[in-house]
Fold:
Amino acid sequence: MPLKPCLNKSLTEAGCDEAGRGCLAGPVFAAAVILPKYFSNPLLNDSKQMTEADRYEMRNIIEKEAIAYGIGQASSLEIDDINILNASFLAMHRALEQLKTIPEFILVDGNRFKPFKSIPYKCIIKGDGKYAAIAAASVLAKTYRDDFMTALHQKYPGYGWDNNKGYGTKKHREAIEKIGTAPCHRKSFQLIAWDLFHQH
Structure:
């Protein structure tokens, strides 16, 4: 299924998506992108379906060709404070704030959103596989977050964040049990798998 170029032909639309919602560590990132009306590129897809090399190549193209784009994040402390859902909305709002062109409509990946200013919006489940602007936002959110976690790995090398990017892999959870948590772990998340407890 090719990506649809837009929902409203006559409006300036921004696509919005986040990355890292299910991670145990690090911020949640979001991106907002306004693409030219009939932008299309064969590489562009839901970022989870793309190779890492294609995502970075696509990021360069999006940043060159987009009418506007913005990146936002909410920290692990904010996630612990207001919960991951609200932190995702906060990151999306921060990304939308960065847009140099104000959108007339927002396409949001997922099924929930907190209104931004008074701009009309539509939530689209699996929208990153349906609309070009949401797919573009998913690529930016994912690559910027991956870069952030790779840099964080230099500071806290014990958790394998250069590979798992903060997701709860077996190696990551075992490292938490062995060396404890880092300041950027999300303390409100279940950081150690229950089956690790029951093995002792």
Summary: The helical segments are 52-65, 76-82, 84-97, 132-155, 161-164, 170-179, 194-198. Residues 132-155 form the longest helix (24 residues).
